Amino acid sequence: MSFLETGRAKPSREMVLRLGEHLDLPLRERNGLLLAAGYAPVYAESTLDSPRMASVQAAIRELLNAHEPFPALVVDRGWNLVDANGGITMLTEDIDPDLLTNVLRASLHPEGLAPHIVNLGEWRAHLLGRLGRQITLTADPELSELYAELAGYPCDQPEPEIELPGPGDILVPLRVRRAGRELSFFSITATFGTPLDITVAELVIESFFPADAATAAFLRDTPL
């Protein structure tokens, strides 16, 4: 390793791949590492509508449908909306369709969901923290631009620098005021376990669950 670090030896293709794996680099960044070392990329990047992605599309759709009536959505590496189920309309109604193309923008823009989020400062800090960690890992300039845009949106609530639990808290909830009542959610994110394609590796499924019995009952009783 010291020879590689000082330039006295050139890493083999296998060594580059092993370093990328041990550093837990995303597949896109591993391709970049290979190119920098003088090797061809090994990870393909398919379009979602390509035939080879049919099984992936089917799995996503099955997960989204099974989660109804609770909201669930799928985003790509730039937080662009890929797909969503019918339950998401409870959160997105009356939001400009142009904003809905990007989930973070739709959540934090003053003409998006933000005015309806009861704990906006807390939820905003949570989302920006997730995006910041993604930027640290990938150094993606487009994500950095998105972060700067989102950070410039107004917020009239304090934004905690550290997520500290209050009495009885076990997670950060999303509390929104919709249909004349306050609804409370927590989310679970999922990724594909053994991706060998960049597009597959970068898909994230986020499923929202009711954080209290009243929210669960309201969603179950509300037609999609």
UniProtKB/TrEMBL annotation:
Pfam families: MLTR_LBD. Residues 56-220 form the MmyB-like transcription regulator ligand binding domain. Gene3D superfamilies: 3.30.450.180. This is Transcriptional regulator.
